[in-house]
Amino acid sequence: MIDCEFCAILNGDFESEELYTDDKVTAVLHLKPASPGHILLFTKEHYPIIEQVPDFVVGHAFKVANKLSTAIFESLSVQGTNIVVENGTAAGQSIAHFSVHVIPRNENDGLKLEWQPTKPGKEEVEIAHYQIKQQAESIHPSAFEKEKEVVVEEKKEEKPVKDDFRWKQVRRIP
Q1: Backbone φ and ψ of 42, nearest 5°
Q2: Predicted confidence band of residue 156 (pLDDT cuts 50, 70, 90)
Q3: Among 6-15, 32-41, 56-65, which is the least confidently predicted range?
Q4: Are the C-beta atoms of residues 14 and 20 closer than 8 Å to each other?
Q5: Closest of 53, 61, 70 to residue 26, by C-alpha
Q6: How high is the pLDDT of residue 42?
Q7: Contact between residue 125 and residue 118 where contact means Cβ atoms under 8 Å apart
């Protein structure tokens, strides 16, 4: 895509600190981080907003974001992460290419990702509720795109290994 910084990174035209890549997504250190270790994960194929990304790619992106969040917890000893999607210019998206931010957080780090709740009128809330509900009722499980069916085989239960990352997750105190 012309003038897309993320596509330029994928084409090697723009330097980046790559952390992860596979056939669907790439993760790099953000050039203008909100905090040290801020990761930017984006699709290899150009999709301007999340609604245009195939469902199986969105699912894969969030699975990778989850693993990157775990890597941040383990490597930086942070107390939390924000996983953020800016979807559209009104939501702060400055580059029209779907991406997920994984931002390391610590208490009192000074980073503000808060908004002030509004107090819409009862009628406005009811109208929004009705309109969204009407649209959501048209969602049917068969509408979700699938990459391929996965056959899960039963595995023999294994004894936990002391250094297994899953056990580290269970023992981690947020």
Answers
A1: -140, 160
A2: low
A3: 6-15
A4: no
A5: 61
A6: 97
A7: no
Q: How far apart are CA 29 and CA 14, in angstroms?
A: 13
What is the side-by-side order of every strand in the sheet holding 80-84? 18-21, 25-29, 39-43, 99-105, 80-84
Please name which of 149, 42, 49, 150 lies closest in space to residue 99, comparing C-alpha atoms: 42
In whole angstroms, how far apart are CA 169 and each of 13, 62, 172?
37, 18, 5
Q: What is the pLDDT of residue 110?
A: 92
Stated pTM of the model? 0.77
Share of the chain above pLDDT 70, in %: 83
Q: Rounded to an integer, what distance in angstroms lies between the CA atom of residue 58 and that of residue 61?
A: 5
Q: How far is CA 73 from CA 36, 95, 102, 164, 169, in A?
A: 12, 27, 11, 15, 9
Q: Which residues pair with 84 in a beta bridge?
A: 101
The partner residues of 66 in beta bridges, in order of sequence, read none
Query: If you count them, how many residues does the chain have?
Result: 174
Structure tokens at 161: 């290994």
